[in-house]
Amino acid sequence: MTHDHTIRMKVNGTPLEVRTRPDRTLLDLLREEIGLTGTKKGCEEGECGACTVIMDGRAVLACLTPALKADGAEITTIEGLEQDGELHPLQKAFLDEGAVQCGYCTPGMILSAKALLDVNPVPTADQIKESISGNLCRCTGYTKIVRAIQRAVEGNR
After folding, report:
1. N or C: which end of the chain has fewer CB within 10 A?
2. Are 128 and 147 in contact (CB under 8 A)?
3. Does the pLDDT of residue 2 top 70, yes or no?
4. How far is Cα 68 from Cα 25, in angstroms, rounded to an integer?
5. What is the distance between the alpha carbons of residues 56 and 103, in angstroms, rounded to a whole number?
6. Mean of the pLDDT values across residues 37-48?
7. Could you tell me which residue, 107 or 2, shows the higher pLDDT?
8. Is residue 6 predicted with pLDDT exceeding 80?
9. How many CB atoms lie within 10 A of CB 80?
10. How far is CA 52 from the centre of its chain?
11. In the β-sheet with 5-11, what is the strand arrangement from edge to edge?
């Protein structure tokens, strides 16, 4: 028998207290208990990156992260990037460059890129490619995605 645990965390800047079972993943907690469905459920094996979120400043795979590890953490999901009705520069750049096709990988790609830009605001193309290497896209071929991230970098200069 599993018992519920109360965890406290900050999600997209909002302090939350959530009861969850110890066998839950952060992905399930975000999607099913908090209602943030922008974090996508893909392979559930840590291979596709669709579930990428930022936890305490690092890109993490929510499908592999136990929900209880989020206790005391600060989490950013794709829903948390928009501010006052304005898209984040990465979101704008993805749209402007046509780096969104089916859109399933997009939240994870953007959050992986944001985690990079938060620590390295002017990365090289190789650093950008490395930062999104854990995110699979079956539609775009990555060229437009890398260009979108570079466009966001240029906008930050």
Report:
1. N
2. no
3. no
4. 8
5. 25
6. 95
7. 107
8. yes
9. 20
10. 4
11. 14-20, 5-11, 74-76, 52-55, 58-61
The string of DSSP letters for 34-92 reads: I--TTS----SSSSS-TTEEEETTEEEETTTSBGGGGTT-EEE-GGGT-BTTB--HHHH
Sign, Cα dihedral of 88, 127, 61, 117: negative
**Which residue shows structure tokens 């936890």?**
55
Model confidence pLDDT, tens digit, residues 73-132: 999 999 999 999 999 999 999 999 999 989 999 999 999 999 999 999 999 999 999 999
Distances (CA, A) of 4 to 19, 21, 96, 123: 6, 4, 44, 42
Instruction: Look up residue 51 and give its amino acid.
Output: C
* 2-7 LR contacts (CB < 8 Å, sep 24+): 5/68, 5/71, 7/67, 7/68, 7/70, 7/71, 7/72
Residue identified by tokens 């304005």 is 86
